[in-house]
Amino acid sequence: xxxxxxxxxxxxxxxxxxxxxxxxxxxxxxxxxxxxxxxxxxxxxxxxxxxxxxxxxxxxxxxxxxxxxxxxxxxxxxxxxxxxxxxxxxxxxxxxxxxxxxxxxxxxxxxxxxxxxxxxxxxxxxxxxxxxxxxxxxxxxxxxxxxxxxxxxxxxxxxxxxxxxxxxxxxxxxxxxxxxxxxxxxxxxxxxxxxxxxxxxxxxxxxxxxxxxx
Length: 214
Hints:
three-stranded antiparallel β-sheet; 11 strands; 4 helices; 30% strand; alpha+beta; metal-binding; Nucleoside Triphosphate Pyrophosphohydrolase; 214 residues
């Protein structure tokens, strides 16, 4: 297996990333949250593109209105009747930030994340060679950001903050004054571990801050 931290591939080359990611996701047995009364489902996209010459994942800061106002997130949203998580995630990627992706761009998926907001969130991993211009929807997106695969894979990116109840809160430290918590932080951490580092892990029990319930 290729060492993801050695040489130019796959953290520094999108084509190499695609090959490694597809293989690791194909062998990863993802978990689907079973249906239950009141459960709502959503799909989000971990979209890898080349930005400033390096492979990066797209994150958004949600508009300062409505659900999840001002929170860090991945492009995505709730499933419409009859939609699969993949279809919903790709539709929302286009609607929210103007990136068009099809089934051939999907590399696989990670575990459903049971958010305290009542959603089971399915993360879909996508790679786009020529994404085109970003066209964020002002009704849904305040700003669009990129984090390099090397930043995600760096040893000092995950930080575990002890809690008074004895647990630990994950912070994905993506830059100065830029920390992302679960649910989004948990999905980024699983992407880092499973896809970038080849270490199968689970995240369903990660602590979620109280403000993510809304």
